[in-house]
Structure of Tannase/feruloyl esterase:
Amino acid sequence: MRSRPRPGHARATLTVLATTASSLVLLAPTAQAAPGGKSPQAPHPDRPAIACEALKARAFAPANATVTEATSVPASSTAPATCQVTLTVSDPEDGGKVTVWVHMPERTWNGRYQAVGGGGFSGGDPGRLAGAVQQGYAASATDAGHVGSSGTFGLNPDGTPNHTGREDFGHEGVHDMAVAAKSVVTTFYGRAPEYSYWNGCSTGGRQGLMEAQNYPDDFDGIFAGAPVINFPEMQTGQIWGQIVMLQENNPVPACKFETALKAAVAACDTVGDGVVDGVIGDPFACDFDLTTLIGTETACGTITAKDVAVMQRIHEGPRGTDGRFLWYGLPYGAPYAGLHNTKLDDQGQLVGDPFIYDIWWIRYFLTDDPSFDWRTLDYASFEGLFDLAVERYGDMMGASDTDLSAFRDSGGKLLMWHGAADFGVTVKGTVDYYERLEERFGEGTDDFARLFLAPGVGHCSGGAGPELTNGFGALVEWVENGTAPATLDAAKAGVTRPVCAYPLVAEWTGFGDWRDGSNFECVAGTRMELRQP
């Protein structure tokens, strides 16, 4: 296993680094492309320093990087002329190999480098680079050591644990990518990028946090959406609702969950923002009483006290057999669908239907048994797997270390955001991390790290709430011009809204159209109470 340096020196241009609703887990959408804005350098006036195809004959850092393809792709109606490079980075210590893709505009480079993360169990892919390249960035992605989004790579074909693949996915693959990509960019243009950025959501958000924690000199700015912080806890905890329904012998049909979701939103609609818009503006201030639903008729039956008990435990989150806190649950306003699905079996009986990522995680990372039946789990064995996950993967892929001193001291900026109605990666985990940052760094936290919660937004996108329109651009402005964002712009279906820095929330002033974000101001919101295992 490669060591993970924790340098605290001035940012180097070429460095060694480590690191995609989920988890997840979830397949995150392509990360936001950066905007235009002031370029740190004027675009190169002539051709790059060497021809694209000549890169195949060059050597790059790290020494074990090999270019397998370098192709100049002509401009199209949607993309500039681009040099597209594929590399393989081998690890002489454990035999691991990661694929790295580097796409570089041949005439419109803005002097910056942007690495784009993956989603779910995918480390990343070249299809995510188009937006960054269109904006003038030299961009890269990596498969983090395996092809595709399936979690089956956790075991080798012979059934033994794939420790190398797990570590590459956990952090090493992204580190290899950053080193190799920066080397390629510098060789191609004849000069190093002046600014380097990370852009990712879900798994990509986790990858960015791993970078800040373990390789603080790799990126000047990190844009981390719905980051899968405390990955072992979050990923294992995703199946909690299914365990509850199984053990209580009460699989809850979808329409009952949907009724509960609508009731919670209706009850707390004006909380925080002061308007009726189908969005809970301050989710931690919503204390909906689920017991008021008992006896409610739905298309799939009457909501019972047993149904409500299941819902309450889903919102409470995973707990040990002695009641100890394990992880956070679902906030009110976030959909139950996705993690708490049910279906009819061959006998026509309603049964649980877990998220496939949860099944992969348990089979290929925890039990190391591809045929393991999740239905054999009870509360005690679930708790055992939970503790195993934390012990085995906390350091490798947990992204929970709050010691960002080196990242801060090197001038790095961390902009995190999370949809408050994320069904898969609970927003509470991200708030937990940020509040622990505040405990460590005090009032100086927001000098280098800020968190924004988007009310009503789902996992990386979607949901009833306005979505971020230029969050990455705010990070660029912060890094290059020192303008720290107090709000991020969001919009959807003719509605605009400022997204305030946590713990502030956007409240309607009471004057003007509530659909116009200029009629809102940031006010004190409700802080989440930290819990400890």
